[in-house]
Amino acid sequence: MVKRESQEGLTVKKEDDFSEWYTQLLHKSELIDYTDVSGCYVFRPRAYAIWENVRRYLDSKFKEMGVRNAYFPLFIPESLLKKESTHVEGFAPEVAWVTHSGKAKLNERLAVRPTSETIMYSAYAKWIRSWKDLPLKINQWCNVVRWEFKNPVPFLRSREFLWQEGHTVFATREEAVEEALQILDIYANAYKELYAVPVIKGKKTEKEKFAGADTTLTIETFLPSGKAIQCATSHNLGQNFSKPFNIKFKDKDGEEKFAWQNSWGFTTRSVGVMIMMHSDDKGLVLPPRVAENKVVIIPILFEKTKKEVLKVAKQVEKDLIQLSPILDDREEYSPGRKFNEWELKGIPIRIEIGPKDLKNKQVIVVRRDTGKKQTVKIKDLKKKIPSILEDIHNSLYKKAEKYLKDSIVEAKTMKDLINAIKNKKLVLTQWCDDAECEDWIKDKTGGAKIICIPFDQPKKLDKCVYCGKPAKHVVYIAKSY
Amino acid sequence: MVKRESQEGLTVKKEDDFSEWYTQLLHKSELIDYTDVSGCYVFRPRAYAIWENVRRYLDSKFKEMGVRNAYFPLFIPESLLKKESTHVEGFAPEVAWVTHSGKAKLNERLAVRPTSETIMYSAYAKWIRSWKDLPLKINQWCNVVRWEFKNPVPFLRSREFLWQEGHTVFATREEAVEEALQILDIYANAYKELYAVPVIKGKKTEKEKFAGADTTLTIETFLPSGKAIQCATSHNLGQNFSKPFNIKFKDKDGEEKFAWQNSWGFTTRSVGVMIMMHSDDKGLVLPPRVAENKVVIIPILFEKTKKEVLKVAKQVEKDLIQLSPILDDREEYSPGRKFNEWELKGIPIRIEIGPKDLKNKQVIVVRRDTGKKQTVKIKDLKKKIPSILEDIHNSLYKKAEKYLKDSIVEAKTMKDLINAIKNKKLVLTQWCDDAECEDWIKDKTGGAKIICIPFDQPKKLDKCVYCGKPAKHVVYIAKSY
User: Chain B contacts of A67, Cβ < 8 Å?
Assistant: First the structure.
């Protein structure tokens, strides 16, 4: 028997069993489907539409910065992947290897790209010869594969995911450093402006940075599951790749120099972050700016008044066409069932049109995020709905921001730190920058990590939470995905 | 030593050595770069921008038809790929197999998708249960891999390529048949309206159809290399997949029925078709509607008048901003060198602004396709340039149409057919529909194939060019890519 889909609502609460709630939510709201390959998921149209919206936004921001799109091959020869040693150490354990084509064994194994530094930079070495060729700013939108052995989680940790990877080359370190910060701002804004998710900006510790980077800048947030998550990263690669890949340019002064490079990426993980942050026991809550359909119109149909109600519903649909409304005029389902279905699927606003309201030339408008109802005159809808959508966006952001702030606990001692981690908090504490202390903290807390060294640092520091020596930074520590 | 790029022009003529001309053209115009993996190419920004334009066009046409985008995994388990036997026979010899992840051997080999019927339809079987779920229309934009052993040709025959694949499901055969035709029209229009390339619509013979299809509809054209090429295809899959994949629905009459399916695809091959059709001995000729930059402005700089000329050049750039103009104000290169560079790169229109013309408040406008020069008053540019661009598009199309028509030769006997094939023609002849005659024709002509059975059939038929029995169709025969 083929398993058929169910339109039923969620049977667990977000608070009671977060993981089961998330799984049910993704499946029942028709965002994700599973396949026979563990960790590889189908992004159904409702999910992909969110990604398309984000992609459009980021793509236009990149283009404003002079970044151009390109496409590099999926397959990277093993020898090429190995050219930068730290890089390959980081990625080799997770590489999916192609060994055969048809019945023939390949001469050299091919890595399915886990990231494209190596294949892109071997091309860059051919393209760049003078300072006039710089900066070179290229981005690609593609799929990548990282065969991780941790428990896969749809969107957050999948073996194949979609992303953009920007790879830029500069004549000076300063330009590279500035761009990496600019990109981090674009990423943080995307989370704020599209997903209504607040993030913390910072940099990764030496231990947690990207394999092959000088510095990894990151945005992080904290989810209602009680875990932190890395939202997007922007890396200063320094000259770590330009040297082995021989990316040299003749500078204005006539000297041959190695170039300075950045890489930066934003992935479909972000969709999962947004879902976990906002959604509730009724199902998906979609911030309006990424929702494919921002409004659902449900005419309340009775035999006598059907014709009239449908006529108005169609007019409303037309008036709001910019918002890609769904007109649910199916007669085989009750209004109540329709309410549940569209709540499950996260449509930001529901408009109910019944015969009684029509007499007063008004409709009922229901917000998905708060459930609040209000009556709105039909003639005002075109003006009112967009402003309610804005309000939904803002209040989702504020709620998430409050959650993030309330999750932060300061710890001055290891005892406080361990307790706060047990209570699923995001802990702000002080650290001496020593990797050994970082290891001990992880060990003593049962796996909590230094999430990031936030940009926002106090003027005065006290002492390291672990060793008691003078602290060099405040850091965020938490369990994380 | 790293190989550096050269800005030199082409050293061979299209007529003299087509293959070398094409290779030089792609490399020197910065469209393509090679990698260490044979048959896998880098699509550089100038090439990718063309694909982005086509993608945008097709995507909006699909969305008008109610098609929604989604994303299915790259990896297909071997057992799933084998579920439809004709299909797997067609694709298995070209599959790239993933056998290992990190150091571990996988339990089951994974195919890097050569096409996604099998993985999509195993999901469809879960999603479809009633006639209310139909039609289901899903498309994905992605990369696919077919490890062919024929000689690879950038764009035309690469081991990895980009495409869209639409996969639609209907309750009736009639709806499916109608949609496949509609899609073929969209594809033909994309070639005409974007690439300025005329195509012939038809269907494939049983031997040449898609592995697993009932019928393959195709658009074909004929290139200046003297070879035909398949431009895009739209397949009626009938119930060939719905049966093994168990895609059933409960119809209005209460009965369970197998669904009717189509799949259709348009690939980056199309970029190569366009390039081969229009480009010339000076380099790339880009039809304006797909060109990233439609205009290049070249100020003719002398010390005395530089300031004034640059000022006007910048104003012209602003006036034409909708056409993404390039203002080439580099002082280290001569105008002549710049002319060559932008001709090589195929910018449709060049605007030369010199001090003499300024006195008359005019500029010189040069068409890339014909090389024709004209003077245009500066105040008229905003109106005139778009109409010249339209004219370029139309005359490229007409020229290609004439070439296609002139390439067609009718043959009534095998002798005529063999001769015409030798002369690199597209042969129109008659055929009895017998697969054995099809084989013999291929054999006797040294590999020419029946390209398609055109939709456009005469009322009266004569006899099969090979066996002399009554003909059932006129067909096109040619050597092909």
Answer: none
Determine which of A35, A139, A158 to mutate to test the interface with B (most B C-beta atoms within 10 Å).
A35
The one-character DSSP state at A378 is G
CA torsion sign for B393, B399, B400, B405 is positive
Instruction: Give the number of A-B residue pairs with CB atoms closer than 8 Å.
Output: 170
Cα A202 from Cα A266, distance rounded (Å)? 16
Chain B residues with CB-CB distance to A127 below 8 A:
5, 33
Please judge whether A96 and B100 are an interchain contact, meaning their C-beta atoms are less than 8 angstroms apart: yes
Q: Cβ(B279)–Cβ(B287) under 8 Å?
A: no
Burial class for B189, CB neighbours closer than 10 Å (0-12, 13-18, 19+): middle
Cβ neighbours of residue B459 closer than 8 Å, sequence gap 6 or more: none
B43, B99, B123: residue with CB nearest A97: B99
Burial (Cβ within 10 Å: 0-12, 13-18, ≥19) of residue A147: buried
Residue B445's closest CA among B402, B404, B470, B475?
B475
Q: Which residue among B2, B101, B160 places its CB closest to the CB of A125?
A: B2
pLDDT at A139 over 60: yes
Q: Does A52 sit within 8 Å of B102, measured CB to CB?
A: no
CA dist., res. B55 & res. A425, Å (int): 45
End-to-end CA gap in chain B: 36
For residues A140 and A4, give the distance between their C-alpha atoms in angstroms, rounded to a whole number: 37
Three-class SS of residue B272?
helix
Give per-residue pLDDT as tens, A332-369: 899 999 999 999 999 999 999 999 989 999 999 999 99
Instruction: Please choose, from the candidates B137, B120, B119, the residue with its C-alpha nearest in 3D space to the C-alpha of residue B61.
Output: B137
Which fold does the domain B411-478 belong to in CATH? Translation Initiation Factor IF3 (3.30.110)
Q: To probe the interface with A, which of B80, B82, B106, B112 has the most A CB atoms within 10 Å?
A: B112
Instruction: Give me the pLDDT at residue A7, please.
Output: 55
- Give the nearest partner residue to B74 out of A43, A123, A143, using CB atoms: A143
Rounded to whole angstroms, what are the CA distances from B376 to A368, B313, B343, B348, B381?
Answer: 58, 14, 20, 16, 7
Nearest residue in chain A measured CA to CA from B246 = A2
Q: What CATH number should be reported for the domain whose range is A18-278?
A: 3.30.930.10
Task: Measure CA A303 to chain center.
Answer: 47
How far A276 CA sits from the closest chain B CA (Å)? 21
| Cα A136 to Cα A261: distance, rounded to the nearest angstrom | 9
Q: How far apart are CA B470 and CA B468, in angstroms?
A: 7
Contacts of A3 in chain B (CB under 8 A): 126
Mean pLDDT of chain B: 96
Global pTM reads 0.95
The pLDDT tens digits of the residues spanning B107-148 come to 999 999 999 999 999 999 999 999 999 999 999 999 999 998
Give the whole-angstrom CA distance, residue A379 versus residue A389. 17
Cβ contact (<8 Å) for B96 and A75? yes
Q: What is the pLDDT of residue A120?
A: 98
Distance from C-alpha of A42 to C-alpha of B119, rounded to nearest angstrom:
9
∠ CA A285-A287-A289, rounded to 5°: 150
Count how many residues are written for chain B.
481
Q: Which fold has domain A295-404?
A: Rossmann fold (3.40.50)
Cβ-based contacts of A41 with chain B (< 8 Å): 73
The SS3 assignment for A270 reads helix
**Sequence spans of domains, chain A:** 18-278, 295-404, 411-478
- B316-345 average pLDDT score: 96
Measured in angstroms, the CA of A345 and the nearest CA of chain B are apart by 16
Taking contacts as CB-CB distances below 8 angstroms, the residues of chain B near A45 are: 68-70, 138
**Interstrand relation of B426-431 and B408-410 (parallel, antiparallel or unpaired):** parallel
